[in-house]
Sequence to fold (568 residues):
Amino acid sequence: MKRKKRQKKIAEIIEQQNFVSVEELSQLLDVSEMTIWRDLKSMSEANLIKRTYGGAIPLKPVDTKPEAEQPPPEPPIDQPCDPDVLIITSAKPQKSPIYWKERTQSAPTIIAESAPHPSAATLIGINDYRAGYDLGCWVGEYAIQHWDGRVNVLIWSYDLPNTEARGRGFLAGLNETTPKVPEVISLNLPARDDLAYQLMRDALEVNKNINVIFPMNDNNAWGAIQACIDLKIDPNQTIVIPFGLEGNTIKNALLNQYYCPIALAMFPEIVGRTCVDAAIAAYNNLELPQKIETPYQLLSRETLPEFYQPGSDGWKFLWEPNQARLGIPLQNIQKPDHVVLKNPSCIGIILTFPNHEWYQNLVASLNEYADWLGITIEILDAEQSLKEELISTKHRIAKRAALEIQPGDTIFISGSVTTQFLTEYISSKVNATVITNASSIFRCLEEQPNITLISIGGILRRDNKHLVGPSAENSLKELRVDKLFLEVSGVSYDFGLSHTDISEVTIQQAMIHSAREVILLADHTRFEQESFIQIAPIKTVNKLITDSGLPAQTRLQFNAAGIEVIIS
Fold:
């Protein structure tokens, strides 16, 4: 679909839905999110739509009625509050140092949920090791009763301190209870919903003796259950042990005993209220313990109704009988005499996994309790924020790279996200020759009369519209360019430049050989990544244009190798 037709379609969708996200537009129109971002930017500058956090809304039509007939002004859309306290959910700050630095430095007080944070006033969560241990003991007893103590366990964990503690506790309880040493297969993978089913199915097909699956959260537990159902595995021979009992899905599975005889409940309803109580205490400078432990409980089909009741809109936590039974942390906050606690006006919460049922229920609990107290909750989607930050970072790198292009230069621009942004910043006053193997780069520059544009031959890859193959590589042997602007998937000092696809690697190697100067465009997320195939040693690079998220130590290392490092 051509750009004008696509933007017309975008305008129609926004007008119909009132708000639409970048991700949704990308899926509806079958183009990359980067393309949608560029379209929205262009349409916003042309006053066709209004960009908002994560998407766009229609512009309000100009009302020509006399002033007296004007309706009262509507409240501003998506105007975020400035949080007095920030709740950070389980995450790794090193994933995006710029984002986390800005967020945590701007917040006067931080409350950590699930996993510790170095700047937090307190950590709210269960005793992960003890909960894992109790669950491991239960499974050990179950194995003795049903399988003569034989346990072959598959553990799906993440590189986070809370999930690692759960795994250690689970194995400790299992080893202490079972008479036979359990066989353990461990998967340490990102928490992606789309991977859960397929990876669980693959693991079960390869390891047919697995009889216990410990998947850490409800999303992966449901993927494991679906894999067991599709593979027609006997429920008496394999069980799934969820850790969380977060939402409706696994509660239903537990009630109907779909491979799930037991689950550990962490009660997001209680955690949500505790987060708000801790935020109020911290806002009033009350002393908080290093960790506030919230309750957990092993629940079966028989005991589930004691804590949750099914309804037309899902399972509801039974507060009345369980408030005293489980204990609500910080219910009676210790405060000095004659001190009246003031509520913060706004509490922000950074969500790392917004699609997980745990965090959906946690947010529901936060909102319900905070609304009762007159406190605004501001949801900050870390995943979307990181995407937006990364796009902004790539734009800054591209803008700085454009300054390297001088009149009369012959340059090669490889196809990538950042190099496509580079085309937006090439000045119309600069006369240059641009050679590329990317149809997207070609289209962006084809209307610039000052640019002599050359597209090399080759085989068209339909997934990314790049020209590759022997004929493309041979054409480069006859060319010599002043500068190559290159982006790769992995950069490390030891392994150099690397990529995941061999057809891309060989064409990039040919580009490097034809260039007098190699200019690498790489945001901080590319570093310390070693992809499948090496393109070239790091000393091949003459200049590196990056962002301030790159650690100073890495910058010094590259400078010492004779590479000029430019921070955009």
